[in-house]
């Protein structure tokens, strides 16, 4: 058949289609080689409400961050095109990445610190759609850093919150008035360190201090937290120089008393003649001057040092020594599924706050118990989570009222304080 351009066009189209298929396959190969995925849903711990715009972060097997996503309006999230391997998921709730704020970070599966995180095995290049999170409302520590001499607030001090593993879990800075706030903390025990390292801005070279008057982690006062608790008035005074250390009075070393050579009181005594060998008599040696035994010097008076408990754990809090007197105050306003109650006592005490919520639904009166929260403080804002039934009634616009019961305990005894919240809204 004679050659013509029209007879060549179908062949060219076939070759172009084949080439396009090869190019498309080359583009899709990496995606097929990284086809694993992780997805799930984030809800609140107490009432299983969905949490939209909540930060979820992904880490690889060596705990290096892979990336983050924000949950959608239904609380869903997902990571796709992942290589086969092991991963960890943190439900961080970081407000700097997504909008939702105030929630404590946790690791799948409902774990607190990263060391307790469960691994997600995708070594088979598979997918996991059940990696769900349950977020709890975080606690906070707040206070003021002041100059020990002027009592003025000190700005730009770096404040580090340290857990019992001596790991930094939160870092913040004091503001222009010396105030600080460390938010979104999980329940646990903490020490608070104050350092003038310049990371927050220009600041005089104050000496390192730990709340309350400590100079190291081992001497720091313990700050215990539950969930949804605000520990306030964790204040510290900073000094530019170390306080003078009293100079101890040296204990004089005992000086041995020299034995004086006695002056002759009369005629020089006649020396005893040395017996001849073989007579069987043991010679009596003539005492040499100064050979008399010296008296043992008396030890100088007590020198003991002060005792103390060292150790690497934070010592427990000190409470007052008389029976406490406390007051309760609450607006009943609910945020994040909980409402705040401000407790004020005349001294530091161990606090346990709980109570009940009552409402009427379908013509029947109902009462549900509020889970108690604890703290050790003279003043604290404790957050009480709404039980699931109460949260459901609130969503249905049903009026809620509360009865609160506080037990405050010191070494001087326990006191019980009750209070009513007319409207929980």
Walkthrough of the structure:
It is built from 2 helices and 24 strands. With 425 residues, it is mainly β. It has 3 domains: 36-135, Sandwich (Immunoglobulin-like), CATH 2.60.40; 139-238, Sandwich (Immunoglobulin-like); 326-424, Immunoglobulin-like. The strands form 4 sheets. Strands 10, 13, 17, 18, 19, 20, 21, 22, 23 and 24 form a 10-stranded mixed beta sheet that branches. Strands 2, 3, 5, 6 and 7 form a 5-stranded antiparallel beta sheet that branches. A hairpin with a 4-residue loop joins strand 2 and strand 3 (65-70). The longest helix has 29 residues, at 5-33. It is globular. The relative contact order is 0.10.
Rg from C-alpha positions?
38 Å
Give the N-to-C terminal Cα separation: 90 Å
- CATH domain class of the largest domain: Mainly Beta
Uncertain runs: 1-32, 278-283, 289-317
pLDDT averaged over residues: 80
CATH superfamily of the largest domain: Immunoglobulins
State the secondary-structure class. Answer: mainly beta
Order of helices and strands: HEEEEEEEEEEEEEEEEEEEEEEHEE
Question: How many beta-strand runs?
Answer: 24
Approximate strand percentage: 35-45%
| Molecular shape | globular
The name of the CATH topology of the largest domain is: Immunoglobulin-like
Compute the number of structural domains: 3
**Major β-sheet annotation:** 10 strands, mixed
**Tally of alpha and pi helices:** 2
Helix content: under 10%
CATH architecture of the largest domain: Sandwich
């Amino acid at each position: 058949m004679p050659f013509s351009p029209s007879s060549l066009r179908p062949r060219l189209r076939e070759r172009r289609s084949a080439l396009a298929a090869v190019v498309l396959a080359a583009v899709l190969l990496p995606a097929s080689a990284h086809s694993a995925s992780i997805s799930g849903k984030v809800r609140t711990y107490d009432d299983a409400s969905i949490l939209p715009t909540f930060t979820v972060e992904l880490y690889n097997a060596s705990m290096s961050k892979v990336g983050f996503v924000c949950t959608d309006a239904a609380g869903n999230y997902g990571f796709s095109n992942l290589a086969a391997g092991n991963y960890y998921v943190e439900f961080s709730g970081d407000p700097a990445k997504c909008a939702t704020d105030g929630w404590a970070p946790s690791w799948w599966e409902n774990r607190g610190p990263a060391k307790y995180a469960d691994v997600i095995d995708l070594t088979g290049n598979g997918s996991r759609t059940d990696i769900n999170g349950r977020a709890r409302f975080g606690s906070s520590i707040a206070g003021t850093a002041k100059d020990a001499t002027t009592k003025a607030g000190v700005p730009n001090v770096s404040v580090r919150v340290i857990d019992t593993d001596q790991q930094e879990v939160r870092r913040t800075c004091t503001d222009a008035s010396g105030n600080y706030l460390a938010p979104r903390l999980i329940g646990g025990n903490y020490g608070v360190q104050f350092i003038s390292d310049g990371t927050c801005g220009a600041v005089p070279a104050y000496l390192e201090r730990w709340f309350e008057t400590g100079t190291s982690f081992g001497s720091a006062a313990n700050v215990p937290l539950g969930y949804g608790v605000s520990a306030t008035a964790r204040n510290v005074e900073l000094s530019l120089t170390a306080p003078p250390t009293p100079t101890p009075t040296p204990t004089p070393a005992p000086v041995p008393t020299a034995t004086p050579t006695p002056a002759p009181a009369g005629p020089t005594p006649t020396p005893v003649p040395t017996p001849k060998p073989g007579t069987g008599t043991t010679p009596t040696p003539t005492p040499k001057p100064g050979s008399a035994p010296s008296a043992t010097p008396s030890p100088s008076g007590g020198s003991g040092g002060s005792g103390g408990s060292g150790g690497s754990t934070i010592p427990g809090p000190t409470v007052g020594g008389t029976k406490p007197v406390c007051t309760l105050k609450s607006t009943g306003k609910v945020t994040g599924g909980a409402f705040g109650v401000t407790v004020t006592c005349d001294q530091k005490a161990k606090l346990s706050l709980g109570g009940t919520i009552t409402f009427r639904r379908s013509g029947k009166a109902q009462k549900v118990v509020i889970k108690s929260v604890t703290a050790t403080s003279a003043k604290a804002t404790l957050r009480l989570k709404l039980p699931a039934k109460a949260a459901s009634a609130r969503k249905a616009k049903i009026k809620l009222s509360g009865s609160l019961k506080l037990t405050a305990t010191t070494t001087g005894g326990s006191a019980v304080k009750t209070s009513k919240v007319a409207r929980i809204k």
